[in-house]
Amino acid sequence: MSYSQQVFDELSARYSYQPEFLQAVQEVLNTLQPALDKNPAYQKNKILERITEPERVIHFLVQWVDDKGEIQVNRGYRVQFNSAIGPYKGGLRFHPTVNEGVLKFLGFEQIFKNSLTGTPIGGGKGGSDFDPKGKSDNEIMRFCQAFMTQLFRYIGATVDVPAGDIGVGGREIGYLYGAYKRLTTSYEGVLTGKGLHFGGSLARTEATGYGTVYFAQEMLKDRGESLEGKVCAVSGAGNVAIYCCEKLYQVGAKPVTVSDSRGAIYDETGIKVDVLKQVKEVERASLTRYAELVPTAKYVPVAEYPEGKHFVWTVKCDAAFPCATQNELFLEDAKTLLANGCKCVAEGANMPSTIDAINCFLASGIAYGPAKAANAGGVATSQLEMEQNASMCAWTFEEVDSKLHNIMINIHRNAAETAKEYGAAGNLVLGANIAGFRKVADAMIAQGVI
Ligand code: NDP
């Protein structure tokens, strides 16, 4: 039995109750064996056993009082997964589905993604099963303060630097940052995604969505194609999806769908990004509101999705951008996309495609950009925010955007060249996994058993 299979079997037995974590590990281990065969030092140093176990998992109680005066109880976590190449870095997710297994999947992905950015940041992730939906601003503030009252002792500008993720945007980061400052009396770059007037970076809000489109452009360039004139299906309607749509227009493409947890929008004339921002960033409303404001939009509630399929992936498109959440694109969806002529899939969300769907895309030979490469622009720009905070200066939007663009070009090149080196040209899953892994594994060996 191969080394990677043996480690995976042991992990599956130990963490059978964490399916998302096992799925993320399986996706990586499926591709690493050639690199493990090439360098026996990885097995000798038990790198797989060590890299699949978080260095630390912090689990804490978050108690707060809602607007009715009732005490509310949530669970908070920070998974400090791997610090071989830099301080832990990764977002905070506030969503009712959050548990330790989900955060371990996200933290594990983050190790390789952060390594691929070429910047010195380790992997981490955190969050809570708190549901921000329907909460007042004051409730959000009290929750963030209670969460930080526990978290502040484990993070710091050179220790662990959280950012946003699902349910954590500029508003939440502001409240979390204020609470950290009050508790520590220190004004430092401990969180990224901050407001522009207190240490935030221009282009951070746009970075993940923009970066995903830059990555798709690179994949298509390699095939002598471009996004210009392409019809695109986008899922999600949050931070990543909005700025993915915005950048698609800028490169001459047309996004025709978006979705949220309750339904999807199809508009063959193109998604209206200004209306989407108003509905999701300002009103924090459902997409039914978007349909009220845009007469050409068709709203399809989840209950009316075709059996076993996500509506968004049934729309005829040239390129697909899953930007909502994990496991939102199944084998059937992948087959439908391919049958409809889709030639490019770039993942803005983390682990949106199931392993079957990924294998289907790889077998078809279309341009497929896995999340840890295609959506690394967000964390890369967070690192640029850390750089600006450390040097107490602020760069222009154009400077940050151009650095982001170069980082995405380099990530693509690194993944593509690594795939070629291992005789798997075009397989960016293998290329990204091996390129991300090697750097972290070599650093772990160099630092000894610590
Ligand atoms: P947001 O909270 O801004 O938006 C998430 C969107 O996805 C919302 O439209 C939400 O719908 C929808 N959604 C969330 N959960 C589900 C679900 N279970 N089923 C259907 N729809 C769902 O999050 P982001 O845009 O920041 O994150 C989206 C994805 O991108 C996540 O996978 C995240 O990990 C990943 N990512 C984010 C980065 C960032 O910089 N923000 C960086 C790299 C990756 P609703 O509005 O109804 O809640």
Walkthrough of the structure:
- The chain folds into two domains: 3-187, Rossmann fold; 207-369, NAD(P)-binding Rossmann-like Domain (Rossmann fold).
- It has helices at 3-14, 19-38, 41-44, 47-51, 100-116, 137-151, 170-184, 204-222, 239-250, 273-282, 287-293, 331-339, 355-364, 371-374, 377-390, 397-421, 428-447; strands at residues 56-65, 71-82, 88-94, 122-128, 160-163, 231-235, 254-259, 263-266, 298-301, 319-322, 344-346, 367-369.
- The strands form two sheets. The chain has a seven-stranded mixed β-sheet with strand order 9-8-7-6-10-11-12, with helices on both faces. A five-stranded mixed β-sheet has the order 1-2-4-3-5.
- The chain is built from 17 helices and twelve strands.
- With 450 residues, the chain is α/β, with parallel strands linked by helices.
- The two termini are 28 Å apart.
- Strand 7 and strand 8 form a beta hairpin.
- The protein binds NADPH dihydro-nicotinamide-adenine-dinucleotide phosphate (NDP).
- NADPH dihydro-nicotinamide-adenine-dinucleotide phosphate (NDP) binds next to helix 9.
Search tags:
single chain; 450 residues; alpha/beta; Rossmann fold; 2 domains; 7-stranded mixed beta sheet; binds NADPH dihydro-nicotinamide-adenine-dinucleotide phosphate
Q: How are the elements arranged and paired?
A:
Blueprint: H1 3-14, H2 19-38, H3 41-44, H4 47-51, E1 56-65, E2 71-82, E3 88-94, H5 100-116, E4 122-128, H6 137-151, E5 160-163, H7 170-184, H8 204-222, E6 231-235, H9 239-250, E7 254-259, E8 263-266, H10 273-282, H11 287-293, E9 298-301, E10 319-322, H12 331-339, E11 344-346, H13 355-364, E12 367-369, H14 371-374, H15 377-390, H16 397-421, H17 428-447
Helix pairs in contact: 1-2, 2-5, 2-17, 5-17, 6-7, 8-9, 8-15, 8-16, 9-10, 10-11, 12-13, 15-16, 16-17
The structure holds NADPH dihydro-nicotinamide-adenine-dinucleotide phosphate (NDP).
